[in-house]
Structures are given as structure tokens and as C-alpha cells.
Design the sequence.
């Protein structure tokens, strides 16, 4: 009986061990990860416009500032430091040659310089006379005599310059030539340095183009189309409805190091012109008119490598590099990059990439 009990206990133990091993193998068995399905990116919503063929007068837009033409200006200065008592003119005033511009007086420092120059001459005269007397008695050498004479000549020349720089007759600084007052540097009650421009006049009574220039900055990608002489229409940036006509006069061959634009000078071709310092918008008309591919300006995306647009076909965006031939407020003339009849994205352009799926919200003709 005892043997049967031991046998049954042994069988139970073996069965329990097998069950434990089976459960452990199931617990540590690796589980395969669930299969995942790749979700395609969501389509971007865009609006479209169709590229059309239109007669487009090629032109370039630029911005700049009205400046004085240095070749047409004359600066009135005085060789001595002055105290400005009164300013007798105003900017824009036409003055005649020899007309009073300022009432002035010598500054205390300038008066001191005249006094010192006189003292130097007096001392040099005494020294020269003493050397002359000694030389007559053979007590001074020829070299000492020459040095004394040179010192006296230097002192006299210094005094002559100081006397020439004294206050002008009647204390009035006058116009050296007729013209228009463009700038007044002198301020009543202020000190005007010796030789510094006091008043700047435009010489003559010619066209504004002889006196003023519009200095404008042009996108270097468009400046290559300019040859000089192109017609320009200018308007004030501040919304003034006045318009001025001009022509491209000078195109700088290199880029401006700060703005990275090509600078150009526009001369005015009529007697009227805006005031110096006026910010202006310039529209430069290029020669000739032709049927061109035209797309909305909102389809253009500027990049570091040039303008691009996205052409949409079969719900896919395709990036195109553009060469433009003119711009307006709402339209852009495209020389290469887009063909007539193709559709370009006009909204959401900054979010598009080449090959992106799109969902068209609206297509404009």
C-alpha cells in the first residue's frame, strides 16, 4: 500500500512540473508586433489660377529716395570760424548772385587766432632786426640771417591768411552765384566751423533733372534688362497722388553691400520734382510690348535662389523655377517656368513642397 502511495505522489509531482514548464513557456514566448498601415499625409488646401497669354508692357518696380545732384550744387563757405547771428534765407528760395544769405561775426577763437598771428609777426620782426644788426657787425652768420628772414615771412603769411578769414564786409555772407537754396547748415546762434558749407545752392535755373536725382534700388534679377534712358514714372510712397516723370541715367555695375540691390540714378525730365528726401516708388517701362504668360502675383514665392511657383496637375504640386519679365500690383509676367493654360497655386503656396498632394478649393480663370 505504501508503494502505491509513493507511486501516485511521484506521478502527481511529475504532472505538476510539466504543467509549470508549459505555463512558463507560454509566458515568455515573444509576441509579434501588430501590423501598422502607413497613413498618407493629408492633402493641402489651395486655390488655383490659370496662366493666360496677355499683352503685357514690360516694366520694373523699384523704391528709392530723392537726392540732390552733387554736380549741380554749389556750397557757400567761409575760411574762418563764425558765429551765426541771423539766417536770411529759407530752403527753396531763389537767390541772385551776391545776395545776402547770413549775418555773421568772427567767433572768439577766430579773433584769438588773428591776435596770435599779429603777435607772431611782431616777434619775428624784432628777431629779424636783431639778427640784421649782428650780421652788420659780423656777429651773426649768413645762415642765421636766412633763418630769421624765413621765420618773418612765415609769420606774415599766417597773418595774411588770418586777415583774409576775418568777418565779411558788413558781416554778411553772400551767394557766390544765383540759384535755389537747397540746404542750410548754419543755425542762428550756432558756431560754423572754418571752411564748412554754410548754405548749399543749386546752380542755374534749369530743369529739376539738373538739380535732383532719385536714387533707387533694383532687384539684381531684373536690373540686367536696363540699358539706360528707360522712361520712369515716380510717385511718393506716402500716398501723395502727384506723379513725376524721369529717365534712368546711371546704373551701378555692382550690388549695394547693404541692401544687396543694384543702385540706379533717375534724372527728372520735367521742371517739377519732389522735395529732397522724399521716398518714391519708381515704375520703369522697358521697351516693347508682347504677348506674355501672366499669372497672379500671389502665386509667386521668393526664395534665396529666385522666384518659384507651384503648378498643380492631377492633384499634385510641382515646383517650377521662374524667370519673370515684369510685375504689376496684381500680375506678374513670366518668361520661363509656367506655360499658358497651366494652373498655379495662389494660396497656401508657402506650405507646399514638390510632389505634395493638394485639394483644390477654387479655380479662378
Sequence:
Amino acid at each position: 500500500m505504501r508503494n502505491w502511495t509513493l507511486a501516485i505522489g511521484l506521478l502527481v509531482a511529475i504532472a505538476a512540473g510539466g504543467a509549470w514548464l508549459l505555463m512558463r513557456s507560454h509566458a515568455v514566448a515573444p509576441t509579434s508586433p501588430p501590423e501598422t498601415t502607413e497613413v498618407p499625409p493629408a492633402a493641402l488646401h489651395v486655390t488655383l489660377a490659370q496662366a493666360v497669354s496677355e499683352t503685357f508692357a514690360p516694366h520694373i518696380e523699384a523704391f528709392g529716395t530723392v537726392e540732390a545732384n552733387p554736380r549741380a550744387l554749389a556750397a557757400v563757405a567761409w575760411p574762418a570760424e563764425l558765429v551765426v547771428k541771423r539766417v536770411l534765407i529759407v530752403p527753396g528760395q531763389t537767390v541772385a548772385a551776391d545776395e545776402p544769405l547770413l549775418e555773421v561775426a568772427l567767433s572768439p577763437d577766430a579773433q584769438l587766432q588773428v591776435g596770435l598771428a599779429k603777435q607772431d609777426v611782431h616777434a619775428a620782426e624784432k628777431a629779424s632786426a636783431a639778427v640784421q644788426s649782428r650780421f652788420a657787425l659780423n656777429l651773426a652768420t649768413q645762415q642765421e640771417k636766412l633763418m630769421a628772414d624765413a621765420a618773418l615771412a612765415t609769420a606774415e603769411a599766417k597773418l595774411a591768411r588770418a586777415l583774409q578769414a576775418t568777418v565779411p564786409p558788413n558781416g554778411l555772407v553772400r551767394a557766390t552765384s544765383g540759384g535755389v537754396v537747397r540746404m542750410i547748415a548754419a543755425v542762428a546762434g550756432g558756431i560754423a566751423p572754418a571752411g564748412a558749407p554754410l548754405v548749399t545752392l543749386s546752380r542755374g535755373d534749369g530743369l529739376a533733372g539738373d538739380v535732383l536725382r532719385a536714387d533707387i534700388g533694383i532687384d539684381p534679377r531684373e536690373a540686367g534688362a536696363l540699358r539706360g534712358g528707360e522712361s520712369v514714372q515716380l510717385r511718393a510712397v506716402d500716398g501723395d497722388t502727384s506723379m513725376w516723370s524721369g529717365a534712368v541715367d546711371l546704373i551701378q555695375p555692382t550690388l549695394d553691400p547693404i541692401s544687396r540691390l543694384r543702385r540706379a540714378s533717375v534724372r527728372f525730365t520735367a521742371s517739377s520734382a519732389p522735395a529732397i528726401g522724399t521716398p518714391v516708388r519708381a515704375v520703369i517701362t522697358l521697351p516693347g510690348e508682347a504677348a506674355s504668360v501672366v499669372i497672379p502675383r500671389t502665386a509667386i514665392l521668393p526664395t534665396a535662389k529666385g522666384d518659384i511657383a507651384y503648378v498643380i496637375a492631377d492633384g499634385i504640386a510641382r515646383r517650377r523655377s521662374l524667370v519673370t519679365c515684369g510685375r504689376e500690383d496684381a500680375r506678374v509676367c513670366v518668361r520661363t517656368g509656367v506655360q499658358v493654360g497651366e494652373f498655379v497655386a495662389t494660396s497656401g503656396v508657402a506650405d507646399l513642397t514638390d510632389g505634395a498632394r493638394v485639394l483644390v478649393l477654387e479655380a479662378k480663370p
About this structure: Residues 78-196 form one domain. The chain is about 25% helix and 40% strand. The CA atoms of residues 106 and 167 lie 6 Å apart.
